[in-house]
């Protein structure tokens, strides 16, 4: 369960900011990063967000876990663009009867996409590290995100821990019985584990639905009451967005 534990979100002024302000700011910066065509602006955003993560003392293991998947995706994009897209050949080699060609413009385009990926992920990572899940769902509700989507997210967040505990119990039982002693047995055990989790998820969903209906659930989840906006937070956020927008325009 320690993989899913939240960082102490009360150690910095970023954590104390209104979740609605942070969410709107993050969405604005995210749109700028995605729409930018070069390298400079996404790298600047990445550096600022990494600095923010260091400031709130994000554990290294959690930091690496959060960025491992986007780094893999960015690497694959660079490789695909470098070898399969472009017109300006950087080098050409023949290996085992296959001609391998690397393209300069393809590499440049792949690096630009990778920078946008990492910049966008860093924005969302900093938002997640400084905002609790309930506050984030409350902010999404305030932004008029469809109610059904918010409810699904809340239920998924609540019961992913239950499913994770079930997976740990099944995996430990399989491992104690040498279920992973060898590739073939490991694959069979993993298939059994996945199937058991699917069945348990369906059983729990049915039981939870029945119990909630019996307790008067009508499809509405009362969200947190929003406190009034702080003028200073709003002013600083608007000013920061303007500064970032100027950087997006001139870089």
Structure write-up:
The protein has 251 residues and is mostly helical. The chain folds into 2 domains: 1-131 and 229-251, no CATH class; 146-220. It has 9 helices and 2 strands. It has helices at 13-16, 19-35, 40-55, 60-84, 104-130, 133-142, 147-176, 183-214, 231-250; strands at 89-95, 98-103. Strands 1-2 form a two-stranded antiparallel ribbon. It starts with 12 loop residues before the first helix and ends with a helix.
User: From the helix content, strand content and strand pairing, which structural class follows?
Assistant: mainly alpha
The tally of domains stands at: 2
Helical percentage: over 70%
Tell me the number of strands. 2
Major sheet strand order: 1-2
Summary keywords:
mainly alpha; 251 residues; single chain
Secondary structure layout plus pairing:
Elements: H1 13-16, H2 19-35, H3 40-55, H4 60-84, E1 89-95, E2 98-103, H5 104-130, H6 133-142, H7 147-176, H8 183-214, H9 231-250
Antiparallel strand pairs: 1-2
Helix pairs in contact: 2-5, 2-9, 3-5, 4-5, 6-7, 7-8
In short:
The protein is built from 9 helices and 2 strands; from the N terminus they run H-H-H-H-E-E-H-H-H-H-H. By secondary structure, it is mostly helical. The protein has 2 domains: 1-131 and 229-251, no CATH class; 146-220.
